[in-house]
Design goal:
It is a single chain. The chain is of the alpha+beta class and 194 residues long. The chain has one helix and 13 strands. Strands 1, 4, 5, 6, 7, 8 and 9 form a seven-stranded antiparallel β-sheet that branches. The longest helix has 47 residues, at 2-48. The radius of gyration is 23 Å and the shape is elongated. The termini are far apart. Mean pLDDT is 87; it is low at 189-194.
Amino acid sequence: ATTLLAAALALAFGVLRAAGATVTRGELMSARNEHVRAVSGFLRSRIGGALPMVFALDPRSGRSLRFEGGPQSLRFVAELPAYFGRGGPQVHQLALRETAGGNALMVEFRPLQAGEAGPPLRAPEPLAQGLRRFELGYRTLDAQGRWTSWQSRWETPEALPLQVRVRIADAGGEWPELVVALPLANAVAGGAQP
């Protein structure tokens, strides 16, 4: 009877331990999914709200900079909601940086002052950490009105792309691909697009 009782207790403890591990895994997956949704929502609202406003002049070419986009960084102007700080048009900079905890997607805001980016409101903050991949792509329409192929670098900084693609992966795997439309991309030069 004692042996049977010990075996039953060992089985019960094993079942409880397995159930606890399953709950923990479920909570971790839920937290990761929530984080992915929050970061994706932030990127969609910030990039999608890009304004065709000049934030700097290229010292070499003299061109007005309205949107700078590289394979792992981008810079543009968008309205900053008041709950982030001072509100109003702010230069947004998103970039992948190496940190002590691995690669992190950092975000920085600078007020737009007389057509130039002012000093940062605060130090860059991590939006997502432990990333294995952060990849940006840009596209627009060609002269015939067809979509161009995705470019890893935006070559027309005086205009906004029509779409920005964001690909992210972390230790948990690939995030859902994010394609953001920029509704105000045609607002420069009377709707002219490269």
